[in-house]
Amino acid sequence: MQENDKNDHGSYAGTFTELGTPLGARLKFDLLTWNGQYRFRIIQVVRDRNGAVLEYCIEARPMTYARGSRRSYLMEYNGTIHFTSVNRHATIEDPFIQTKA
After folding, report:
1. pLDDT digit of tens for each residue in the chain (101 aa)?
2. How far apart are CA 72 and CA 51, in angstroms?
3. According to the 3-state scheme, what is the secondary structure of the chain?
4. pTM of the full predicted structure?
5. Phi, psi (deg, nearest 5) at residue 20
6. What gap in Å lies between CA 65 and CA 47, rounded to an integer?
């Protein structure tokens, strides 16, 4: 969705309110939920001097830290996904998921 928004408007969206709500998701106070297990939000937005969003991260945190949802994730705008099994926000210093090329 972010790439489409950038192609359409010349910039990434800085919030889910700007980006829109995907089918089947719910948006409340810029927190996006899907199926009730995780909440998502766009954070660490970097803008140029004209306000265009150059970089962002999407955070995914469990609604409840319990069996089946014990990890927090952080996805950078370039697609790198970091995770932690500790009950806290994931950061770019956390390990990242290796993807196949």
Report:
1. 899 999 998 999 999 999 988 888 999 988 999 887 899 999 999 999 999 999 999 999 998 887 666 899 999 999 999 999 999 999 999 999 977 65
2. 29
3. CHHHHHHHHCCECCCHHHHCCCCCCEEECCEEEECCCEEEEEEEEEECCCCCEEEEEEEEEECCCECCECCEEEEECCCCEEEECCCCCCCCCCCECCCCC
4. 0.86
5. 110, 165
6. 32
Residue 95 lies in a domain: no
Closest CA to 42 of 24, 23, 20: 20
* CA neighbor of 12 nearest in space, from 59, 44, 60, 40: 44
* Phi-psi sector, 4: left (phi>0), alpha (psi -120 to 50), beta: alpha
- Domain holding 16, by residue range, is 2-84
Q: Is residue 58 part of a domain?
A: yes
